[in-house]
Amino acid sequence: MSKVTCQKGFTLVELLAVVMVIGVVGSVVGGILISSLVGTNKTNALDNVRQNGNYALLQMSKEIEFSRNFYGVSTNGVSYITDCTIPTVSPTPTPTQYGYVKIMSANGQAVTFSCSGNTISSNSASLIDAATVKTTSCYFTCSQDNLVLPPTVGINFTLSQAKAGNFVENNTSVPFNTSVTLRNLNR
Question: Fewest CB atoms within 10 A around its CB: which of 80, 117, 176, 182?
């Protein structure tokens, strides 16, 4: 008479194999989740920078385009020049980069746009959310074919995430630029 014993359970090798499979699947799923979160962070940072830049560019462009008078451009915010004619010499000189543009808005208010510090402002009111984005470069240019024609003001700035931290995905920098010709000058 022999006894047949039936043992139920798993062997050590089977348990280790299951743990390995679960570990590999967990690593793959974790990698996908982390990659997705990194992509979302980068998209959110880029979207925030673009929204701030587009808003500032639109506000300055509209005000300058429909301004009633052009008081000039300045490098120091004190003395403004209104003659933006560029001499016709070869090679064409590099346009002067100004930090301030002063106009009379369509409603008759004097408006000064300035690039100072880490912000872009209109009459000292920031056009960007300085808590989330900062200006890494900002300047205005001015050109005019002759004194009879209205000047064309160039708006150029680059914004980046203010508190990017050590994460590469948050280090977002976006350039913005446009040229605006004053349409309602002296009207």
Answer: 117
Q: Kindly report, residue by residue over 48-72, the tens digit of the pLDDT.
A: 899 999 999 999 999 999 999 999 9
d(CA 110, CA 87): 29
Closest CA to 68 of 108, 17, 35, 124: 108
Half-sphere exposure of residue 34: CA atoms within 13 angstroms, side-chain side: 7
Number of structural domains found in the chain: 1
Nearest to 46 by CA among 152, 183, 175, 142: 175
Determine phi and psi for 148, rounding to 5 degrees.
Answer: -80, -35
Read off the pLDDT of residues 172-186 as tens digits, 9 standing for 90 and up: 889 999 999 988 766
Entry field: residues in the chain? 187
- Through-space distance between the first and last CA atoms of the chain, rounded to whole angstroms: 118
Q: Which segments of 19-98 are extended strands (E)?
A: 69-74
Phi and psi (nearest 5°) for 58? Answer: -65, -45
Give a yes or no: residue 7 inside a domain.
no
Q: Is residue 4 part of a domain?
A: no
70 near 105, Cβ under 8 Å?
Answer: no
Let me know if residue 5 belongs to a domain: no
Query: Does 86 fall in a domain?
Result: yes
